[in-house]
Design goal:
Blueprint: H1 2-15, E1 26-33, E2 39-45, E3 50-59, E4 67-78, E5 84-92, E6 95-99, H2 111-122
Antiparallel strand pairs: 1-2, 2-3, 3-4, 4-5, 5-6
Length: 126
Amino acid sequence: MKFIIALAFLAVALAAPQGDTKPIEIVSSNSEMNADGSYSFNFESADGTKVSESGSQKQVGPKPEDIGTVSKGSYSYTSPDGVVITVNWTADENGFQATGDHLPTPPPMPEHVVKMLADLKAAGVL
């Protein structure tokens, strides 16, 4: 049993990062928080990673107390193969929606489905 425990500790020690890894420097950083609940922040690191976000309070339901934060932002980084990846996103009463050239998109709807939906809408079903 002691041998198994010693082996587990050895495996954990070998799995730990090796070498001299230095922290990545933050080259710019800005942050703002306002009394009305709105905010914004952004930063950029020395490796080219960029992040920005802004948000505000919004009534997201029928009642005055249905207040939520709506936010939008973006981030970008360089992938291991040297391509800059950028994601733009929105988070609001419709959920989280991200866009980016690298993200998969659904195929177009077949023509018969488009026609069927148009017919249903015209009939007042949708």
